[in-house]
Design goal:
about 325 residues, eight-stranded mixed sheet, two-stranded parallel ribbon
Length: about 325
């Protein structure tokens, strides 16, 4: 009876694995031109090549739209920074009164830098020069950018009360407004596709502006967006728009999943991504910043059991930082 039971369990496991490989799993991202969309496309490509799982990229206006869909079992994976997934899980800030307890962490993909940019010929040099200037605001379809940009303003003891608001649905529309001269600045993630497109479209291009990095400013930034931290980015050929050492907001960029996604699927996804940084980086450059041994990071949200299983095997659990 024991042998029969073991064989039956093994057979069921094999059937489950086969079923998992035959399905297509959806990945929620921001719109085309965004880091999330390009990251999702890269993950889908690598998972098909190396993990033999089919992923389909599903772009939305922002993570405030697609994270609840993961919780509701209408999407399987998604990308978001560590602050917004905490908001989403707890039902605070953007998700006030709407907790999404079905979210689970899979792991950190890489870290994102970004700050405000201005036309190259602008007289604006620092974040505090934005007082009274036209600044994209609201981000109705990607509310997390309200907190990202608000955190950057907070480093200089500023808020949206100190600028002239220009409501936009997404950060990409904010960049479009900068190209069209409707605003004086726009938030651009470092090396984002939409930013590179704007650089080629504008007559003289654009450049990033910096803020003063102080312990007090970092604390104010963290108070607006948990886990965010200032980071000084050097000028390099690969750092579009960085013309001098520039302070930016750095956040961890997570791949998250839903509690409904089978353990074996999440396990295989974590394992495949951990073992294929080179392929991911070839598909999308920012994955060069990926540190596989830091995929399991401390966070207030729970990790998916499938991810935990892999991290234990890899000696990464519990998280060390």
């Amino acid at each position: 009876m024991r042998k029969f039971t073991s064989a039956a369990v093994a057979g069921l496991a094999a059937l489950a694995a086969a079923a998992a490989h035959g399905q297509t799993y959806s990945v929620g991202t921001n719109p085309q031109g965004s880091l999330a969309f390009a990251s999702g496309t890269a993950v889908a490509k690598v998972m098909a090549q190396k993990g033999k799982l089919q992923f389909r990229v599903a772009p939305y206006g922002g993570s405030s739209t697609y994270l609840p869909l993961i919780h509701a079992k209408k999407l399987d994976f998604g990308f978001a920074n560590q602050g917004e997934i905490a908001f989403a899980y707890d039902g605070t800030q953007i998700f006030d009164g709407r907790p999404n307890k079905g979210l689970r962490n899979l792991g950190v993909m890489y870290r994102i830098n970004g700050t405000f940019a201005v036309p190259k010929d602008s007289a604006i040099r620092k974040i505090n020069d934005l007082k009274g200037k036209r600044v994209p605001s609201d981000y109705t379809s990607g509310r997390i950018f309200h907190y990202i940009t608000g955190g950057i303003l907070a480093t200089q003891e500023m808020s949206y009360d100190d600028v002239r608001r220009f409501p936009v649905p997404t950060f990409i529309r904010g960049i479009d407004a900068l190209v069209q001269g409707k605003v004086d600045t726009a938030y651009i993630p470092l090396n984002a596709g939409a930013g590179k497109k704007a650089m080629a479209t504008m007559n003289n291009g654009w450049r990033y502006i910096s803020f003063d990095v102080t312990p007090e400013g970092a604390k104010r930034m963290h108070g607006v967006l948990p886990y965010a931290e200032p980071n000084v980015v050097p000028p390099r050929k690969t750092n579009t728009g960085v013309v001098e050492p520039t302070a930016m907001m750095r956040v961890q960029f997570y791949l998250v999943t839903g509690a409904h996604v089978p353990d074996e699927v999440v396990y295989l996804t974590a394992k495949t991504l951990y073992n294929n940084k080179k392929a991911l980086a070839l598909a999308f450059g920012p994955f060069n910043r990926m540190v596989p041994d830091e995929m399991a990071a401390r966070h207030s949200n729970p990790y998916h059991p499938g991810a935990i299983k892999f991290y234990k095997e890899a000696g990464l659990w519990p998280p060390k930082s």
